Amino acid sequence: MKAWVCENPVGVEALQFKELPPPPLGPGQIRVQIRAASLNFPDLLIVQNKYQMKPPLPFVPGTEFSGVVTEVGEGVKGFAVDQRVAAFGGLGGFATEVCIPAVLAMPLPDAFSFEDAAAFICTYATSHHALIDRGSLQAGETVLILGAAGGVGTAAIQIAKATGARVIAAVGSEAKAQACKALGADATINYATQNLRDELKALTEGKGPDVVYDPVGGDLAEAAFRSIAWRGRYLVIGFAQGQIPALPLNLALLKGASLVGVFWGEFAKREPGRNAKMLGELAAWYAAGKIKPVLDRVLPLEQLPAAFARMAAREVVGKLVLTNV
User: Fold this and answer.
1) Which of 180-184, 241-245, 249-253, 279-283 has the lowest mean pLDDT?
2) Residue ranges of the Enoyl reductase (ER) domain (predicted)?
3) What pTM was computed for the model?
4) E strands along the chain, which residues?
5) Rounded to 5 degrees, what angle do the CA atoms 75, 79, 80 make?
6) In 163-274, where do the E strands start and end?
7) CA pair distance 306, 303, nearest whole angstrom
8) Domain presence at residue 279
9) Are residues 174 and 136 in the same domain?
10) Please, how many CA atoms are within 13 Å of residue 196, restricted to the half-sphere of its CB?
């Protein structure tokens, strides 16, 4: 098999594309021939040694992928050779094959393309868990989505619209604003040229958004929290800007607002039944055409460094996908 290997987590430039022996198949695992893998922001952080999980060296990065089952381990039920699957496996996705616990895999209908499937689980599960489960978003409410043109942001726009909410998409360029409008956003704010608080006040007639979806963190967080509506819910998804904000907690008191942590990965481990039900609902929404991953680029696996460079430059709209042919 071929894989991108991280032997020294000092950055993308240290990754090596090399031949490796096939990984051993353990009990409860399936072997997957990978057809497509997508980039998520933690994939960049982990090869820079900046992520909360620090795997033993060497390791193969790549959290999310799709492919075909080629071997089934002892004790595995519900999967068979030649079955199409997608998975959020944590590691191993930037390779031609991988062995993962079967419980991490999601069976794929034939109509689900490998490229879409590789860009589906993490972003849509995160956004559904955030908006519906943790944020209790209701039809008619207004949600502000920060970093709305990214992977989780584009998924959040689609899920919020499917719920019947009004969407304000906040982005860093006019091109990204237009992309969000094409996905169904009702209004956009370009925070590179516009004042976030002033625009939110105008767009909500002074009320503010009922829900703030924040995968960005950094210096936008306080302005967004100061603008939130009475009884608003501020969803902490992640910190793509790199800075963890310090929010004055008196704002929560003054607005009767909730600061809500969202950790889909832990939710999936602790509440597997609810997670499986949610993934089933999302797959049904995909089949019905309510949601569809936005693919920024589809590149060969060999071009992983170029894909990472595009992600680091914050040029991506939706998800970057790598394919094995």
Assistant:
1) 241-245
2) 11-322
3) 0.88
4) 2-5, 16-19, 29-38, 64-72, 84-88, 97-101, 105-107, 142-146, 166-171, 187-190, 211-214, 233-236, 258-261, 295-300, 319-323
5) 105
6) 166-171, 187-190, 211-214, 233-236, 258-261
7) 5
8) no
9) yes
10) 23
Pairwise CA distance, residues 28 & 286, whole Å: 28
Listing DSSP states for 77-128 in one string gives -S--TT-EEEEE-SS--SBSEEEEEGGGEEE--TTS-HHHHHTTHHHHHHHH
Q: Is the peptide bond before 58 cis (omega within 30 degrees of 0)?
A: yes
Q: What is the pLDDT of residues 4-63, one digit of tens each?
A: 999 999 999 999 999 999 999 999 999 999 999 999 888 988 999 988 789 999 999 999
Question: Does residue 6 fall inside a structural domain?
Answer: yes
Q: pLDDT band for position 231 (50/70/90)?
A: very high
Residue 241's pLDDT band, with cuts at 50, 70 and 90, is confident
Q: What are phi and psi of 285, to 5 degrees?
A: -65, -40
Query: What is the tally of structural domains in the chain?
Result: 2
How large is the average pLDDT for residues 212-227?
Answer: 94
* Helix or strand run (H / E) with residue 304: helix 304-312
Cα–Cα dist 191/170, whole Å: 7
| CATH number of the domain bearing residue 56 | 3.90.180.10
Cα angle 199, 203, 204; round to 5: 120
Residue 70 belongs to domain spanning = 2-120+293-323
Quick: pLDDT tens for 60-89: 999 999 999 999 999 999 999 999 999 998
